[in-house]
Amino acid sequence: MSCNPDSVASFTARHRSVVTLMLLALLAAGALLLAGIVGSIALPVTDLAAALGEILRGAPSTLAATLLELRLGRALSAFVTGGALALAGVMMQALLRNPLADPYVLGVSGGAAVGALAAMLLMASAWVIDAAAFGGAITVALLLYLLARRDLRGGLAAEGGASLLLLTGVILASGCGALVTLMLSIAPDSRLRGMVFWMIGDLSGTQVRWLPWLVLVAALLFAQRVARSINVMALHAEAAATLGVRVGLLRQGLFLCSALLTASAVTSAGSIGFVGLIVPHACRFALGPDHRLLMPASVLVGGTFLVLADTLARTVLSPQQLPVGVVTAMIGVPVFLLQLHHIRRK
After folding, report:
1. What DSSP state is assigned to residue 97?
2. How far is Cα 252 from Cα 247, in angstroms, rounded to an integer?
């Protein structure tokens, strides 16, 4: 009885993808546990099981359980933020067909910054700041969609449409940057530090929310559904429509999902840089260009990377905490330069 070589190769590829994702999931779980243990007050490993039991029962009474609950809540927020930024980076690079694209390139984060800093300037409460940031990001995304809807719907002229979309986003980002500079210049000293920390990217005041997780899961489900079409569009951009890919709808879906992911991530933690740029490149370099594996792997790696970076940010100068955006930038610059070096060698 003979075996079809194509079927064997397909089974082997699926098996490799499943094993890879399982290993990355275990790595993510380990990063979350490390974040719960490490801190200015170390949590003994022997107390970990009892503390987890108290948290699951909903009645943390000991110091270990209280510390673990606070740290795990922050680590989960870091994970969903990093995963959202990484997935948005993959989608943006596929949409613009530009390896240098990241979630912030179209100005969505600039809209979030305008909304959040305006609320801080008016001394609004924390939930109002989050709502203003999300509203600002969605406003810029809708404005960009209205201005560039023809480019997003373009099929055969995908390259030119991507260039015009990118140019429109850069102009909107510049306008938002001017408003941010204006608000920082007139802000009183008592509020300036918090505004600057928000712009750099900070997870110190985050709480576990269901909305970022809902956005991430929905975007990942959409991404897996259209992963084959993204592969076709990446390899055969000019002929994608003739191969059965509905290019216009695919481009619009990628844009809307990446905008929602960026808005939810920036609302939760501010403008954390480099996650949406270096993680997709690292996963593509290690795992290949197949988006069926690349997108879920990027979510796991991006979440793990930001959890570890935030753990480092709050422990390296403990009890003082650094903005996590500083740590991701310090790690991201040499990592990206190393990736470029490998690309040149290849």
Report:
1. T
2. 9
- pTM value is 0.89
How confident is residue 11, by pLDDT bands cut at 50, 70 and 90? low
Radius of gyration of the chain (CA): 21
Q: Which domains does the chain have, with CATH numbers?
A: 13-340 (1.10.3470.10)
d(CA 193, CA 180): 14
Q: How far is CA 98 from CA 133, 162, 346, in A?
A: 27, 9, 19
Report the range out of 62-66, 130-134, 204-208 with the highest average pLDDT: 130-134
Q: For the chain, give me the number of helices (H) and strands (E)?
A: 14, 0
**How confident is the model over 38-61, as a mean pLDDT?**
77
Q: Answer whether the bond into residue 319 is a cis peptide, omega within 30°.
A: yes
What residue type is assigned to position 172 of the chain?
A: L
| Alpha-carbon torsion angle 302, 107, 115, 118, nearest 10 | 110
Angle at 73 between CA 71 and CA 76, to 5 degrees: 105
Inter-CA distances, 266 with 2, 19, 77, 199, 296, Å: 54, 31, 12, 9, 20
- Burial (0-12, 13-18, 19+ Cβ within 10 Å), 6: exposed
Per-residue pLDDT band at 111 (split at 50, 70, 90): very high
